[in-house]
Design brief:
120 residues, alpha+beta, 2,3-Dihydroxybiphenyl 1,2-Dioxygenase, domain 1, 8 strands, 18% helix
Length: 120
């Protein structure tokens, strides 16, 4: 299974604009995505080095701790179900071009497993 990137998802405790100022102005990352409830940043020299800050997930019941982009999210979903893992958010096609689900890891962390859909 090809893992494309792993992104920590930080829960915002201040307005997102303050996070944007910090991660762009102080840390030196560039804005990769802004959906209003989540902003993500990436390295200018390594676009898979990313970090996200979100208020609350707009379409899921909980805040994911980490996002893992995989080559085939459907295959990982079947593996998670087969292993008896706790699915927190079902396999869903999101309006911003990803297909994803949330699963709880053995430590209690919520993992957002996703793939980008073709033609988005």
């Amino acid at each position: 299974m090809d893992i494309r990137r792993v992104v920590p998802n930080l829960k915002a405790s201040a307005p997102l604009e303050r996070s944007r100022q910090f991660y762009e102005g102080v840390i030196g990352l560039e804005l990769a995505m802004d959906l209003g409830w989540i902003i993500s940043f990436r390295s200018r020299s390594n676009p898979t080095a990313q970090l996200a800050v979100l208020l609350n997930d707009a379409t899921a019941p909980v805040h994911p701790d980490v996002s893992v982009e995989v080559e085939d999210v459907d295959a990982v979903y079947r593996k998670a179900e087969g292993a008896g893992a706790e699915i927190i958010h079902p396999l869903t096609d999101e309006s911003w071009g990803v297909r994803r689900f949330f699963v709880r890891d053995p430590n209690g962390a919520v993992i957002n497993v996703l793939s980008h859909r073709a033609n988005t």
